[in-house]
Amino acid sequence: MVSEEFRIIPIFTAYHLIHPKPAVIVISVDESGRANGMTAAWTTPLSHSPPLVGVSISPLRYTYQLVKRSGEFTINVLDKRYVKQAHFIGTVSGRGRDKLAEAGFSLMRSRRVKPPHIREALAVLECAVEKEVEAGDHVLFIGRILEAYAKSEVFDEVYKPGKAKILMHLGGACYATLADELIKP
To answer: CA angle 136-141-147, nearest 5°?
Structure first.
């Protein structure tokens, strides 16, 4: 029995209870090198040594096919100024269009992987797929981080909350950002 203090949440949207999560752009490439991206909030660190990160992608998505074939991807952390672009990239398919260009992003060559990264990003992780794990209607791609970089004005050892306004996904078409203060125990 649930007390009156709590409200029952539909299981289908229960993941909203562990949000916000950064709304990142995952970029991969097709056989010709054409880049495609998708917005993802289902990402997570998995290991320090080796440095691993997980990205959960539905097999119905075009990005899933590209990551599976190429075995590489970049994770691009955006700030709140790019909420419209991130939402657009997360709601249309790139099968027949260049949605990264349509969103107005500038792509740059990555250092260790073929997929490019977004110049406007606050930070970038370059990853190679180590393993795939089926997880219900999604597949968790476990990527080894080969290279990582961040803009110095927003990141030192951690993000500077007064400067890094990371775009955070709450669920659906709702987003938020970090507070201005750094809170320590």
So the answer is: 160
